[in-house]
Design brief:
about 325 residues, eleven-stranded mixed sheet, two-stranded antiparallel sheet, 8 helices
Length: about 325
């Protein structure tokens, strides 16, 4: 039984329970469960995780009556900590069926990145003070059989919106949305591979680089944290990152849970905002960097549905994730095998 259902069942005798209060009680319940499971959870700098499942729910049963009493807590209750949010997301992602396609189906992941722009140069020596938003969208169709063709759809990939001086819209579109080598809008990549080269030799990359590493990545958070710190990426591949939404969402459920819990171990992680089912958390980049990436989590499904950074909050990506029965036909630009 999910935590939210447990809270509702216990509060069934109440005259009325507002949905917002139920959500708040669920967070408090998760906080108590996390404390009961993790011997180091009360310490400020580190948290240990032994996993949350049926055993975790049983452990939390003793505190349920106390927590449900908080259903009527005043609106001024403090926002949940990042560790609480990430622990809850880890539990939810273990039970979601949002990314379990049947044979022949596809996981559809569409990401739109919005970048505010300012200034436009229609001709040399002339600059117009105008603001606008440049958006880029890419949609992936990942087959249930990951060895089959992955479809990359870049139809109408770029758009100009929110132009402060509408009379310049067509000129901005002409400059921003044209140029470069024309590729097919829809491309089929066998097994998710991308063929590239340096002019001398052909190289193969992957639409989801981390997916090649899923099997070797530890499922215990402390071990995963150490693995990420010491992993040496192959030539041409960036180091694996917990905050890369496509890599994260395509991972097996147990690995997604471990990644959420590994984020909870990072000192400095904090909740940025909560909006219904969606919570945005800032995650430190690590090392000597002060960069704080943000991820928006769908707390109902335990998936990443947005990304950005605290340093440049005006630029952000948003994702739509679903299961579909078919994908558009793509042009294959490389040999199979």
């Amino acid at each position: 039984m999910l935590l939210l259902e447990r809270v509702r069942e216990i509060g069934a005798d109440e005259a009325r329970v507002e949905e917002a209060s139920v959500q708040k009680a669920r967070r408090l319940l998760n906080r108590e469960i996390a404390g009961g499971l993790a011997p180091g959870a009360r310490r400020r700098r580190r948290r240990a995780w032994t996993g949350i499942g049926i055993g975790g729910l049983v452990t939390g049963a003793a505190v349920t009556a106390i927590v449900v009493g908080s259903v009527v807590a005043p609106p001024s209750a403090p926002i949940a900590s990042a560790a609480d949010v990430l622990t809850e997301a880890a539990e939810v992602t273990l039970t979601t069926e949002a990314l379990t396609p049947a044979p022949g189906q596809y996981i559809r992941i569409s990401e739109t990145w919005a970048q505010p722009m300012r200034g436009f140069v229609p001709e040399e020596g002339t600059e117009i003070d105008v603001t606008y938003t440049l958006s880029r969208t890419r949609t992936l169709y990942v087959p249930a059989d990951r060895s089959a063709d992955w479809i990359e759809d870049n139809t109408d990939a770029e758009r100009i919106t929110d132009v402060s001086a509408p009379e310049w819209t067509s000129r901005i579109e002409e400059q921003e949305l044209s140029g470069g080598e024309k590729m097919p809008d829809i491309v089929a990549h066998p097994g998710g591979r991308i063929m590239g080269g340096d002019g001398w030799e052909t190289h193969y990359y992957h639409l989801s680089p981390m997916s090649r590493l899923y099997d070797e990545m530890p499922r215990e958070p402390e071990a995963l944290r150490e693995w990420l710190a010491t992993y040496e990426p192959e030539s041409g591949y960036a180091p694996p990152r917990l905050t890369e939404p496509v890599d994260f969402n395509l991972a097996p459920a147990d690995l997604r849970a471990a990644m959420f819990q590994t984020m909870a171990l990072l000192p400095g992680a904090k909740v940025v905002s909560e909006d219904g089912d969606f919570t945005t958390v800032a995650i430190p980049d690590g090392g000597e960097s002060n960069w704080m990436e943000t991820v928006t989590i769908d707390m109902r499904r335990g998936l990443m549905v947005g990304r950005g950074s605290l340093d440049t909050p005006e630029s952000h990506g948003s994702l739509e994730i679903s299961i579909v029965d078919s994908a558009p036909e793509g042009v294959r630009l490389q040999p199979e095998g």
